C-alpha cells in the first residue's frame, strides 16, 4: 500500500467520508435530494453531510428534519423571526423551534422538498444555517447586552459578525474551515459578567486592559482595551474541561486574525484518528501550551502579547429576565423567560410583533434559552407589560423556572437517555408548589453525557443516564453541583449517580433545602 492509501485505510468513518466529499458539496444537490426524497438519499449525505448546511436528519422523526441556524451574538431581526415562523407554520403540529444554549434557534419538522425554498427565504433576509453542525465552528456567542449595557467594556456585535463572516464566507460556506477535526466553539464577551460562559468554549475572548505603550500624562501609562484569550474548553461524554489561558492578549482589530490562526492550527494539526480525542484541548495536551502558542503565532505571522495581568470579569452573571434601563436614556431592555426555550410559529410572530411595535425591530437570545427585547421607550413600557404574551413568557417567573435550562432530550434527539424538556418543567413546577426560595437556583438538564444542556455550569445539573429501580432499567440522572458562572467561573462535578427520575423530586427538594435555603411552604407560612 502507498503511504496515502495506508493513511486513508486508518481513517475513522467520519474522516473517510469527509475526504471522499466535502460536507459543503451537498449544497449543489438539494434539488436532486428533494426530487428523489429523503428515503432514497445516500445515507452519508442524509445523516451527516447535510449538517454542513445546518440540516439534521432526526432518526426519532424520520423525514422531519431539524434546521440549526446561525445567530451571531444571538441577535435576530423581527423580519428574520417572521421568516422562521412562516417556515414552521407550514408544518402545523410537527413544527416547533428551540432557543439553544448557544444563543441560537433550531427549527423542527422541516421537509426535504421545502429546503431549497427555505434557503432562498433565508438568503432574502440575511439568515444562514451554514456550517452549524458536525466538524464546523458553531454559532459564535457574544454579549446579549452588547450596545445596551452602560457598564459594558466593548460592544461585541460587529466583531462576532466579522468572525462569522470570515469562517462562513458571509454565509455562503467556506471550504477553508469545513473540515476541522471536530466541532469548535468560539465566544467573545465585552461585558463584566461573562454572559457567554467563556470557560466552556474552545476559544474565548474575555475583556482585559493592557498597559499601553503611551504615557497618559501623569506618570502612568494609558490602558489599552483588548481581550485575554482562553483556549481548549469543552464538554464531551469522555471528558469535560474548562478553558485555560493562552497567555495572550489581543486588540479587538486582531481578533478575526487570531480566530483564523487558531482554527488553521487546529485544522492542520488537531488529532483526527479518535473522535473522542479530536477537540482542541487534546492537541494542547499533546503539544503543551508553549508549542501550541508558538504555532498560533507562526500562523498569525506575528508574536502575541502576553496576557494582561487580570481580566475584567468581576460581576456575578446576570440572567437578564425583567426590565432594565439601557445606556441610551429613556430606553429599556426587557428579558422574557421562555419556558425551556420552546417556541411555536405563533410565538415567533407575536415576539416579532412586540419587538416591532414597542422596540426597534430587534430581538436577542441568551444562552439561558430566553429572549430580550431591547430599545423599548419609557412611554411604551406600561402597554408592553400588559401584552398577553407576557403571561406565558414572563418577566418575573418563579425562582426555579427562572433558572431552568434544558437540552433537547428524547423527544427529538437520538443520543438522549431520557426525556428532558417536559420533565424538567414538570419537576420544577412540583418543587415550586412545595418550597419557597430566597435565592436564585440555576438548574440545567441534559439528556446524555454530551452535555449540551451544560449541567457542569449549573447550581444543580442533571444528566440523563440509565438507572435501575426495583431491578428494572429506568430513566435516571446523575446529579452535578457546584458550577459557578460569571466571576471566577468553574465547573461543577458529579455528586450522585443513577437516581431514577421517578425518585428525583424528594432528592432535589432536600438539596434545595440543604444548600440553597429553600423552605417548605407550610413551614414558611407558620414561621412568618
Ligand atoms: Fe450539542 C451533539 C443539541 C449545545 C456538546 N447536540 C448534539 C446533537 C447535534 C446530536 C444529534 O445529532 O442529535 C444535538 C441535536 C439535538 C436536537 O435535535 O436538537 C445537540 N447542542 C444541542 C443544543 C440544541 C442543545 C439545546 O437544547 O440548546 C445546543 C445547540 C447549540 C447551537 O446552537 O449550536 C447544543 N452541545 C451544546 C453544548 C453547549 C455549548 O456549546 O455551550 C455542548 C457542550 C460544549 C462543547 O461542545 O464543548 C454540546 N453536542 C455536544 C456533543 C459533545 C461534543 C464532543 O466533543 O464530544 C455532541 C456529540 C457530538 O458532537 O458528537 C453534541
Ligand atoms: Fe441530545 Fe445528549 Fe445533546 Fe441532550 S445532551 S441534545 S440528549 S446529544
From TrEMBL:
What is the name of this protein? Ferredoxin--nitrite reductase
Q: Where is the Nitrite/sulphite reductase 4Fe-4S domain?
A: 134-303, 401-506
Keyword set, alphabetical order: 4Fe-4S, Heme, Iron, Iron-sulfur, Metal-binding, Oxidoreductase
Q: What class of enzyme is it?
A: oxidoreductase
UniProt KW 4Fe-4S keyword: yes
Is RNA-binding found in the keyword set? no
Q: One GO molecular-function annotation for this sequence? A: heme binding
An example of a Pfam family matching this protein is: NIR_SIR_ferr
Q: Which family does it belong to?
A: Belongs to the nitrite and sulfite reductase 4Fe-4S domain family.
Entry EC number(s): 1.7.7.1
Q: Which residues form a coiled coil?
A: none
NCBIfam families documented for this protein: CobG, PRK09566.1
Q: PROSITE patterns from the xrefs?
A: NIR_SIR (PS00365)
Check the record and name the PANTHER family matching this protein. FERREDOXIN--NITRITE REDUCTASE, CHLOROPLASTIC
Known SUPFAM superfamilies for this protein?
Nitrite and sulphite reductase 4Fe-4S domain-like, Nitrite/Sulfite reductase N-terminal domain-like
Every copy of the Nitrite/Sulfite reductase ferredoxin-like domain together lies at 63-124, 324-388
What's the domain of life for this entry? Answer: Bacteria
Amino acid at each position: 500500500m502507498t503511504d496515502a492509501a495506508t493513511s486513508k485505510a486508518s481513517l475513522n468513518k467520519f474522516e473517510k467520508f469527509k475526504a471522499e466529499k466535502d460536507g459543503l458539496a451537498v449544497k449543489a444537490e438539494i434539488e436532486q435530494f428533494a426530487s428523489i426524497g429523503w428515503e432514497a438519499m445516500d445515507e452519508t449525505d442524509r445523516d451527516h453531510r447535510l449538517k454542513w448546511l445546518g440540516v439534521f436528519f432526526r432518526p426519532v422523526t424520520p423525514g422531519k428534519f431539524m434546521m440549526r441556524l446561525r445567530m451571531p451574538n444571538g441577535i435576530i431581526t423581527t423580519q428574520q423571526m417572521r421568516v422562521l415562523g412562516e417556515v414552521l407554520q407550514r408544518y402545523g403540529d410537527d413544527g416547533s423551534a428551540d432557543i439553544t444554549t448557544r444563543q441560537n434557534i433550531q427549527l423542527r419538522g422541516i421537509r426535504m422538498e421545502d429546503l431549497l425554498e427555505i434557503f432562498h427565504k433565508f438568503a432574502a433576509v440575511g439568515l444562514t444555517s451554514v456550517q452549524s453542525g458536525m466538524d464546523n465552528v458553531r454559532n459564535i456567542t457574544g454579549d446579549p447586552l452588547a450596545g445596551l449595557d452602560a457598564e459594558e467594556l466593548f460592544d461585541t456585535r460587529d466583531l462576532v459578525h466579522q468572525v462569522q463572516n470570515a469562517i462562513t464566507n458571509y454565509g455562503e460556506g467556506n471550504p477553508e474551515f469545513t473540515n476541522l477535526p471536530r466541532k469548535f466553539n468560539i465566544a467573545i464577551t465585552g461585558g463584566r459578567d461573562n454572559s457567554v460562559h467563556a470557560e466552556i468554549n474552545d476559544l474565548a475572548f474575555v475583556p482585559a486592559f493592557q498597559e499601553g505603550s503611551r504615557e497618559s500624562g501623569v506618570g502612568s501609562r494609558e490602558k489599552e482595551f483588548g481581550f485575554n484569550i482562553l483556549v481548549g474548553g469543552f464538554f464531551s461524554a469522555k471528558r469535560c474541561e474548562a478553558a485555560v489561558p493562552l497567555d495572550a492578549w489581543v486588540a479587538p482589530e486582531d481578533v478575526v486574525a487570531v480566530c483564523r490562526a487558531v482554527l488553521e492550527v487546529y485544522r492542520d494539526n488537531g488529532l483526527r484518528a479518535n473522535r473522542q480525542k479530536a477537540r482542541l484541548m487534546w492537541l494542547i495536551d499533546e503539544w503543551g501550551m508553549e508549542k501550541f502558542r508558538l504555532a498560533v503565532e507562526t500562523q498569525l505571522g506575528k508574536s502575541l502579547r502576553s496576557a494582561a495581568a487580570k481580566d475584567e470579569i468581576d460581576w456575578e452573571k446576570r440572567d437578564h429576565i425583567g426590565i432594565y434601563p439601557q445606556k441610551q436614556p429613556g430606553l429599556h431592555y426587557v428579558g422574557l423567560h421562555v419556558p425551556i426555550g420552546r417556541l411555536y410559529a405563533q410565538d415567533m410572530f407575536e415576539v416579532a410583533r412586540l419587538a416591532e411595535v414597542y422596540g426597534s425591530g430587534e430581538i436577542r437570545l441568551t444562552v439561558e434559552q430566553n429572549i430580550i427585547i431591547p430599545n423599548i421607550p419609557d412611554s411604551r413600557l406600561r402597554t408592553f407589560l400588559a401584552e398577553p404574551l407576557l403571561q406565558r413568557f414572563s418577566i418575573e417567573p418563579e425562582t426555579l423556572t427562572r433558572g431552568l435550562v434544558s437540552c433537547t432530550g428524547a423527544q427529538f434527539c437520538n443520543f438522549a437517555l431520557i426525556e428532558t424538556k417536559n420533565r424538567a418543567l414538570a419537576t420544577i413546577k412540583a418543587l415550586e408548589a412545595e418550597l419557597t426560595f430566597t435565592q436564585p437556583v440555576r438548574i440545567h438538564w441534559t439528556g446524555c453525557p454530551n452535555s449540551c444542556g451544560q449541567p457542569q455550569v449549573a447550581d444543580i445539573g442533571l444528566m440523563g443516564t440509565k438507572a435501575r429501580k426495583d431491578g428494572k432499567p429506568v430513566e435516571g440522572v446523575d446529579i452535578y453541583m457546584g458550577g459557578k458562572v460569571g466571576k471566577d467561573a468553574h465547573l461543577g462535578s458529579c455528586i450522585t449517580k443513577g437516581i431514577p427520575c421517578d425518585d428525583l423530586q424528594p432528592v432535589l427538594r432536600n438539596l434545595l433545602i440543604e444548600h440553597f435555603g429553600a423552605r417548605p411552604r407550610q413551614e414558611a407560612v407558620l414561621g412568618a
